[in-house]
Amino acid sequence: MSPVEERLQQNLALVRQRIDSACRRAARDPALVGLVAVTKYAHVDWIASLARLGVHTFGENRPQQLVERAALWPGDDWHLIGQLQRNKVRSVLPHNPLIQSVDSLRLLRRISDVSGELQRRTRVLLQVNVSGEASKQGISPVELLQTWPLFESTPNVIIMGLMTMAPLAEDPEDARPTFRGLRELRDELRALPGEPRLPPILSMGMSHDMEVAIEEGATLVRIGSALFDGLS
Asked: Distance from first CA to last CA of the chain, Å, rounded?
């Protein structure tokens, strides 16, 4: 095993230990919390090492980088976690990603149209701006509740759940209201009249605040710096 792979193995073990500890505190099953390795700044050989270590879910911020890397590891599960412009949709969909960053009904409908042309159904998460920060992309909780039937009835997509980003802060506890807000929004959507088909995925939490996110119900955590710590 190379020094790089040894360091990745150590970092991965620490991340999984943090996930397990947070799950124990929250009386949750660690098997229900998935890890997305965020590879925005990772070298290709680091990704290959992680795959050998058993990591097969990767998240990319840039559509073009996802396209290039998903072609190298077509059997793995690729997530687009960065902003997706409508003119980039067609290049991304053939790689069957989970698009975590659907931040408007307009974008969802574009994904639906291209998915229909390609005769596929695309997995998506709806990105919600729970904190209300002007600098963040996302649908407001109020808007999503009011227009949920329009999202839910969009063809050719599978809405797998919700995603959010917490405000940057030194204290991870500052992220708790945002994470709690996403979970409560998920519960409100499920309580709407009819039979909402929203599955339970909640993508929230990164390297510095994953424990708080897990305690508040995260089912996917997006981890980059904690995995690649010490590598350059």
From this structure: 18
Question: 161 pairs with which residues across the strands?
Answer: 125, 201
Q: pLDDT tens-digit profile of 148-159?
A: 999 999 999 999
Output the 3-class SS for the chain.
CCHHHHHHHHHHHHHHHHHHHHHHHCCCCHHHCEEEEECCCCCHHHHHHHHHCCCCEEEECCHHHHHHHHHHCCCCEEEECCCCCHHHHHHHHHHCCEEEEECCHHHHHHHHHHHHHCCCCEEEEEEECCCCCCCCCCECHHHHHHHHHHHHCCCCEEEEEEECCCCCCCCHHHHHHHHHHHHHHHHHHHCCCCCCCCCCEEECCCCCCHHHHHHCCCCEEEECHHHHCCCC
For the chain, the structural domain boundaries read 3-228
CATH H-level superfamily of 3-228? Alanine racemase (3.20.20.10)
- The distance from CA 100 to its chain's CA centroid, rounded to whole angstroms, is 5
Report residue 220 as tokens.
């996917």
Q: Kindly report the average pLDDT of the chain as a whole number.
A: 95
pLDDT tens digits for range 45-75: 999 999 999 999 999 999 999 999 999 999 9
Q: Are 163 and 218 in contact (CB under 8 A)?
A: no
Sorted by sequence, the CB contacts under 8 Å of residue 121 that are 6+ apart come out as 115, 156, 157, 158
Q: Which two tokens stand for residue 114?
A: 């291209």
- Cα gap 64→70, rounded to integer Å: 10
